[in-house]
Amino acid sequence: MTAPLIDVETTSRLPPAAHWNALSGTDSFYLSHNWLTFAARGTNVRYLTVSAGGDLLGALPLYPTAGESNDDYRVDHVLGGRFAGLPTLAGTRRGYVNELLLHPALDEQRTDVVLEAMVATIHAEKAALLYLTTPAAAELMRVDSGLCPLLLSADTSIPLPDGGFAAYLGGLGARRAYTVRKEMRIFHEAGYETAVVSLGDIWQEAAPLVLNVQHRYGHDESIEECRQSLRAQADALGRHSVVFTACHEGALVALSLGYVWRDTLHARFVGFDYDALRGAREYFSILFYEPLRWATENGLRQLHLGRESYQAKLLRGARARPMWAVAPTPVPDWRRRNSDTLAAWSHWAPPELGIPASWLADT
User: Fold this and answer.
1) Domain range for residue 272?
2) In the predicted model, what is the mean pLDDT of residues 297-320?
3) Which of 10, 179, 203, 215 is buried most deeply by CB count within 10 Å?
């Protein structure tokens, strides 16, 4: 019996959730059918799909770069504008983690067929892929050795051991565990009332606190835009949401939003009433310790924390992995650029990031 013919097409419709979420890359919430449905709002997204006999073998979302509001996803903005002029963003457009969407049961031959279709589309669409994991970038390079991965950022997560929160503390070592216990005690003694709710329960109350953080870091979102975004997330993703709150005398003072997907709690953002904070390690407690305790109690295996604030995250048990940008643009100095970026990370980066030596300049 001959194998079914491979069908490659580009469509404006996201394939059904059962087919999409069976692809291996959807272990990341930010490539799941649920998240991409939300992220498609207000965009002219298209989806490259590769299928055979009705089975989805691989896929690649494609977004026009024009009108992208997030500087970290503006192809003309990242890496000093090296990818300026590329009209398409491939993969997810939020979350800062990008994987290749492949059916996990593919053999090597069919894997290569799907990857070749992806690479052909990347060239035809002049598309950049941002925040790719190292294995994903390596797979694309295996098919097209002319692609040059550029070190873009790092992603962090805390693995959760068997044995609950006590086992997590035990794995930190005495010095770091002492710091965590001290910060937790300071937060507890401040007298906050803590709770765990869904986003649908609290999105209106949360908006001003989330906006405070956005404004502190230079974003110019309005309160109405913030409310609309939170409401849209509550409507589309509420059943996956977990909001950790801290109140003082009944008033919401701090919160963090996370999404549960498979065995991972994905920390999404925080919100604070800065004037009402009591200097009680609220940031660490609401972003790290309350979610960590809840995640271990609910049988999850990982707290995903994303990028930035690397030192604080690594000190609390996070592991880092590099994220890459790949585009069909010749980059003669790409290895030197990667080495320079890695050198700039020396104040926080652990010695082993799993970066292939051939992706760095000879020293």
Assistant:
1) 161-300
2) 95
3) 203
